[in-house]
Amino acid sequence: MCVRFSPLTAEEAQAVLDARGTGRHAIRCIEAPDPMHDARPGSQVPLFIPDGAGGLRVAQLEWGFPLDGKPHAVFNTRIESALEQLRLGRRGMWAKAIAQGRCLVPVRAFYESHATEKVVSEKTGRPVRRQYRFRLPGARAFLLAAVQADGNFSIVTTEPNASVAPVHDRMPLVLGPGESNIWLGPEFAWLADRSHIVLTSKGE
Q: What DSSP character marks residue 37?
């Protein structure tokens, strides 16, 4: 379950949109993103959302949907649950968001906590689960699939592929080249299979 990622700034996100189709690099490569700027549930994050005219625009949304009076309590969306609600026409939490609110989160990296590996926390001195940083090789940034509604968004997750499975039993739905239009289009459901995506990881 993704609880931390390295987002772009709003200026960088806009530069990415402005550079689409030009072949130029809109942002610089950062091998080790600054953890002070990482997003966590409750963070305001720049996303790409459809502009209603066939393009995209940058919007600042809050990571996490409220639940039972708790703000940003639900920050991941299981693709299987959302698709089931959509298929059955249920009024579940994700039915409307997956149907009408699919969006894109530009990131430099995302993090997953290992199920068993522990390290000593520099802040508390206590054992904590080791986190692994995942990136798309050769990419300054890449896109995660997400859903949004009413100023909030949630990262869509799916079954882990060979890159993530040794660390965690879920992974964000990472989009490869050319897949952003599919996620925003009518045939988005088949993107649940991420077995072809290769990621690099580094323990922290």
A: G
